[in-house]
Amino acid sequence: MQIVLIGAGGTLGSAVHTTLIGRGHEVVTVGRSSGDLRLDIADPARIAEMYERIGSVDAVVSAAGDTPWKPITEMTPQDYEAAFRGKVLSQVELVRQGLRRVAERGSFTLITGVLAREPVPTGSAASMANGAVEAFVRAAAIEIAPQRVNAVSPTVFTESLDDYGAFFPGMEPVDLANVTQAYVRSVEGAQTGQVYCL
Q1: Which domain CATH number covers 172?
Q2: Do residues 154 and 198 touch, judged by C-beta distance below 8 A?
Q3: What gap in Å lies between CA 186 and CA 25, rounded to an integer?
Q4: Which residue in 5, 13, 37, 114 has a CA-CA distance of 20 to 30 Å to 152?
Q5: Which helix (DSSP H) or strand (DSSP E) does residue 11 occupy?
Q6: How far apart are CA 90 and CA 59, in angstroms?
Q7: Domain boundaries, position 141
Q8: CB burial of residue 116 (10 Å; 0-12, 13-18, 19+)
Q9: How many domains does one find in the chain?
Q10: One-character DSSP codes across 54-96
Q11: Which value, to the nearest 10 degrees, does the dihedral of the CA atoms of residues 157, 158, 160, 162 take?
Q12: Residues contacting residue 151 through CB under 8 Å, at least 6 positions apart
């Protein structure tokens, strides 16, 4: 398959990239500071540019989405807007603009996270964004068939415990290898409207 992967330079994106390449797929990587195409998908105009440059693909895979982390008492309206643009609108636009570019039975795989289900202090923006993406996936799936859309919703990565484990107290970590298999399931499988919780 021909796949475009957004966020390929990050911890998750690198693992997904390696997995997809290892399964024989052709992958175009997109990122803000690295990749075959360098652009910020938080800007809908850059998403349009991306699709113009890559043409038609079989699948769009996202492993990117930024949200601010602060106590609610320190959050501003701009912080919540940034979370919406960085993780929700960017991925909604990948689907909306990609409908004409993805194969008839192609797929979109978006990224959310455990905070949609298990909130933690300072993570209200991430919880909001993750929940919104998951709701969008379920709604979009009933409209875009036979194209498919799913989301991968992991907890903290085992490989990132040293940096982020303190933010997820008592939560069971997940190995990146398991998360990448959820991406494979979404891209190569037949399901739609699913949120793969890991």
Answers
A1: 3.40.50.720
A2: yes
A3: 14
A4: 37
A5: helix 11-22
A6: 16
A7: 2-197
A8: buried
A9: 1
A10: H--EEEEEE---------GGG--HHHHHHHIIIIIIHHHHHHH
A11: 140
A12: 109, 110, 111, 112, 133, 134, 137, 194, 195, 196
**38, containing H or E segment:** strand 37-38
Q: Nearest to residue 143, comparing CAs of 96, 183, 109?
A: 96
Radius of gyration of the chain (CA): 16
Q: Is 0.90 surpassed by the pTM of this model?
A: yes
pLDDT recorded at residue 66: 86
As a dihedral over the C-alpha atoms of residue 81, residue 133, residue 126, residue 30, rounded to 10 degrees, the angle is: -80
Q: Which amino acid is at 67?
A: T
At 26, list the tokens: 């052709």
Q: What is the pLDDT of residues 54-89, one digit of tens each?
A: 999 999 999 998 899 999 999 999 999 999 999 999
Q: Which among 80, 86, 69 has a CA at the least distance from the CA of 7?
A: 86
Q: Residue 66: what residue type?
A: D
pLDDT in tens, 172-191: 999 999 999 999 999 999 99
Q: List phi, psi (to 5°) of 12.
A: -70, -45
Q: How far apart are CA 184 and CA 135, in angstroms?
A: 21
* pLDDT given at position 171: 87
Q: In the numeric block, which tokens belong to residue 105?
A: 């039975």
What local confidence, expressed as pLDDT, does residue 162 receive?
A: 84
Residue corresponding to tokens 């912080």:
79
**Pairing status of strand 195-197 against strand 26-31:** unpaired
